[in-house]
Design goal:
By secondary structure, this protein is mostly beta strands. The chain is 11% helix and 39% strand. The strands form 10 sheets. Strands 1, 2, 6, 7, 10, 14, 20, 21 and 22 form a 9-stranded mixed β-sheet that branches. A 7-stranded mixed β-sheet has the order 17-24-25-26-23-19-18, covered by helices on one side. A 6-stranded antiparallel β-barrel has the order 31-33-36-35-34-37. The longest helix has 32 residues, at 2-33.
Length: 724
């Protein structure tokens, strides 16, 4: 009804254009006061959170700071990347595929200040510090009228065919890695900072609708004007209690109490129900109690929950089951939203009472939307409906109420997406000693990796074995526990538990953790770690603070690394050996050859220096023989030793360790008075004639494996005279 009546009023004051605007005002008022049960007012909050790519999709005008999905306005096909891993020495190679995409997303037809966080499928893609969690190129265009054409779009679309999208705020992602999102473009939402400070609702109304504003100073942390001018003004009116009023040259949005025109009252009749009283110059109507919603909800964006949609309710004790919801595409705290719901419900309750005034033609100056006071009636009233017929002006008025104070309210529990910096990637390559029972056929070069930030997860790897060409070899394994040696443990024995020595290490991540281990757990392989080139195990790990740990109860020189005991220096690597955190490197260099590795993480600088490792062969070569003895027997020297194996380290049968090589062979180097002599034997013993030995003799024994010689077991004896 308001639409028709105010259309007539608009025609009286402004002709055809006035009739159109009057109809708009009437429709807005109808929507505020006569909403049907279950109706939803304003833009759908869920719609604003779903990314679209349809041609003609509405792009909002944004105010303050708000989280929106945006609209994909340009995209390329997925780009496929291949990386070959493994191969050589009879092993098959595997090819890993990864995908990237480039696209542009628009989010505001009003110029913005910047972009904060970005979410992809609900997880942070860009943190509060501006750091991206996966690798991507990113360029932001704030919507200026002089912004340039994006170079990527221009390069792919061709000169003269790429628009600059001036006046449109949008962002371009270049080669966004899609592995974390199922190899598809993820659902993105953006924390758009259109204005650094909160914006008054009146400012939004003035910008969107071109209306004057009076008393509408409700602060909004953010607002998304998603749909038409009418929808935006209607949502602001419904939430704030404001209304539209005709002015001399334009319409105004008015809220609250203010200057009011006095209107006489020559008597009133009162009649309950929906009909107006007949007779007299004024009438009072009171609608039924169940015509007002029993519960009214406000839907909004809650900054305390990462701008997730929230709902606050106000309830009155009355009969009926009507419920009304107002969806306001605004950013509010929970208390302000609850007060807004209470205010809207209070206005609906007051609107049950309506006053109808019948006045002479001199009341033509009382336009719809004006404030008035009625003689002998408390408070102020708003002219809601206005008719003029046969020189009689009839006004239908509703009471005006002041806005309620904000009340305490809970936004509900929320689990925010983790926002941790990744930092730079730290690589620790090494040759893995034989820790299992399967003999290696090529050098087992592995790399452990971690980031200096707690948010680090993976990094891409490049490898070079010739020092010139680089090849992609996939990604690092799971984050490793690694760091550097601060205090070396010093010397020790591989055959004894070292309870005297301790080592202190600094972990790359301050929140990294180490644990104690029992003797049974150590025997089963727990707490293996590379300390420089020595493989150790530790029974106790004591935190010293700030990522520093003291290791004690050491098992030294494990799996053939006893030659490195005592060789550590401050700054040497420390790596906790865990299979899931070790990435095998292929192609691998030959023994004595070098491999260079380079990490490409999200926060790794472009000038990162590569890390180099030289293969020592410890994963391929037999360990050195032990128990080397030299005895004088009659006219000869009897040399004996015990072999070891690079498999069967646990020695479960208690008889003999498996050979681990094709044949059992040894190379014995005899240094007699400085003159070397090489002898080969297939048994772990050798008899050397004693003739002519009158000074010193040095024996070096090496086991001959399939891939080379073991380290030497060495013994020197001094002989003054041998009795024949």
């Amino acid at each position: 009804m308001a639409t028709i009546v105010l259309g007539v009023a608009g025609a009286v004051f402004g002709g055809r254009m006035g009739a159109q605007i009057g109809g708009l005002i009437g429709a807005a008022i109808d929507g505020q006061l006569f909403a049907k049960p279950g109706t939803r007012e304003g833009a759908r909050l869920a719609d604003l959170r779903v990314q679209s790519s349809s041609y003609g999709s509405a792009i909002p005008k944004l105010f303050g700071t708000v989280r929106v999905a945006g609209c994909v306005i340009w995209a390329t096909d997925l780009t496929e990347h291949r990386a070959t891993e493994g191969g050589g020495k009879g092993r098959p190679s595997t090819t890993a595929y990864s995908y990237t995409a480039s696209f542009a997303v628009a989010f505001s037809t009003r110029r913005i200040h910047g972009i904060g966080r970005i979410w992809a499928d609900g997880q942070l893609l860009r943190g509060a510090a501006g750091d991206f969690k996966v690798r991507t190129g990113f360029r932001l265009y704030t919507g200026g009228e002089d912004q340039p054409v994006d170079p990527l779009i221009a390069a792919l679309e061709g000169a003269g065919r790429a628009p600059a999208h001036r006046g449109l705020a949008y962002a371009v992602f270049e080669d966004l890695e899609l592995a974390s999102f199922g190899n598809r473009i993820p659902q993105l939402t953006f924390e758009v900072i259109a204005d650094p400070e909160p914006v008054a609702a009146g400012t939004i109304a003035r910008t969107i609708g071109g209306v004057a504003v009076e008393g509408l100073d409700l602060p909004l942390a953010g607002f998304s004007a998603q749909e038409s001018v009418r929808t935006t003004l209607d949502a602001l009116c419904a939430a704030s209690g404001a209304w539209l009023r005709a002015g001399e040259d334009r319409f105004a949005m008015v809220a609250g109490l203010g200057n009011a025109a006095a209107v006489p009252d020559d008597g009133a009749g009162t009649e309950p129900g929906a009909g107006a009283a007949r007779g007299g110059r004024s009438a009072r109507t009171l609608a039924a109690a169940d015509s007002v919603p029993r519960r009214l909800s406000i839907g909004y964006y809650d900054p305390a929950r990462d701008y997730q949609a929230g709902v606050q309710q106000a309830t009155r004790r009355a009969a009926g089951t009507r419920e009304t919801r107002i969806d306001l595409p605004a950013v509010l705290d929970a208390g302000a939203a609850k007060a807004m719901a209470a205010g809207a419900l209070a206005r609906a309750e007051l609107a049950r009472e309506r006053r109808t005034l019948t006045l002479g033609w001199e009341a033509l100056t009382l336009a719809p939307g004006m404030r008035i006071t009625i003689a002998n009636s408390p408070g102020q009233w708003r002219v809601d409906r206005w008719t003029f017929e046969q020189m009689v002006v009839k006004l239908e008025c509703v009471p005006i109420t002041a806005a309620p104070m904000a009340a305490p309210a809970s936004p509900g529990r929320s689990v925010a997406a983790p926002d941790a910096r990744q930092g730079r990637t730290v690589l620790a390559p090494f040759e893995l000693p034989p820790i299992d029972e399967v003999p290696a056929t090529t050098p087992r070069i592995v790399v452990a990796a971690a980031g200096t930030g707690s948010g680090w997860r993976r990094a891409a790897l490049l490898a070079s074995v010739d020092g010139g060409s680089w090849s992609a070899i996939g990604e690092t394994a799971y984050p490793a526990v690694l760091g550097t040696v601060r205090t070396p443990p010093g010397g020790g024995r591989a055959a004894l538990i070292d309870r005297a020595s301790v080592a202190e290490v600094d972990l790359v991540q301050a929140d990294g953790a180490l644990a104690n281990a029992t003797m049974a757990a150590l025997d089963a392989g727990a707490n293996l770690a590379m300390l420089g080139d020595e493989l150790v195990q530790f029974g106790r790990a004591e935190p010293l603070g700030a990522g520093r740990w003291r290791l004690s109860e050491l098992w030294r020189g494990r799996r053939g690394t006893e030659a490195a005991i005592g060789a550590q220096r401050p700054g040497d690597r420390f790596v906790l050996v865990a299979r899931e955190s070790l990435k095998p490197i292929a192609p691998v260099p030959a023994i004595g050859g070098a491999v260079r590795l380079l990490a490409q993480g999200v926060e790794d600088p472009a000038d990162t220096a590569p890390v180099e490792l030289v293969s020592s062969g410890i994963s391929l070569l037999p360990p050195s023989p032990v128990q080397l003895t030299i005895r004088v027997r009659s006219q000869a020297l009897q040399v004996r030793w015990a072999r070891r194996s690079r498999v069967d380290w646990s020695w479960r049968d208690g008889v003999d360790a498996a050979l681990g090589e094709e044949t059992e062979r040894y190379q014995v180097e005899i240094l007699r008075d400085g003159n070397p002599q090489l002898v080969e034997t297939t048994a772990p013993e050798l008899t050397i004639p004693a003739t002519g030995i009158n000074t010193s003799l040095t024996i070096k024994v090496r086991q001959m494996g399939m891939h080379g010689l073991s380290p030497a077991a060495e013994c020197t004896v001094r002989i003054k005279e041998v009795t024949l």
